[in-house]
Amino acid sequence: MRAGLQSNASKSLLEIIGLGSPLQGLSAGGALAAAALLCGALPVVRFEKLRIRASMAPRLGAGIGILALGIYGGLGITYAMMTMRFPVKPNEYDNELSGTSYLILACMLALIVVGLGWCFYRSIKAAGIGQSQQQVSEEVNQD
Fold it and tell me: What pTM was computed for the model?
């Protein structure tokens, strides 16, 4: 094998296309996604103002632009989280819940009990109304 091929093979894809770092690649991709979004969305907005249904091409371009912009936004956040250092102190557990934890637990249990009780009350009330109406109609028919 030639040395030139080996050196190109060891380079990353970003270096081959002329972008030195992943941040430059994310910036370029985000810019392309924003341009695709604008090229697709502007005709759609213009046509909808005129009350004309836009063709499938600008709608598809706007959709792909939104998806691409979301992908590059997510990749940017992922890259930022991977490269940043966050100081983390170790947690020490003493197998006890704090006062705040007990308060949250009590509120959630009360919410569940009250919610289920309310649903049960409503179902019994609805069943009682339906049954009493049927009894009234039977009594009227018997007379």
Answer: 0.45
CB 40 within 8 A of CB 64: yes
| Six token digits for residue 23 | 């941040």
Structure tokens at 28: 């370029």
Reference 62, options 89, 42, 84; nearest CA is: 42
Q: 61 and 35 in contact (C-beta within 8 Å)?
A: no
Which percentage of the chain shows pLDDT scores above 70?
76
Torsion of CA 83, 85, 90, 96, to 10 degrees: -70
102 shares its domain with 68: no
Report the distance separating Cα 63 and Cα 56, nearest Å.
10
The parent domain of residue 62 ranges over 9-83
Does 71 map to a domain? yes
pLDDT tens-digit map of 66-85: 888 888 888 888 888 888 88
The 3-state DSSP composition of the chain as helix, strand, coil percent (nearest 5) reads 80, 0, 20
Residues 13 and 65 in one domain: yes
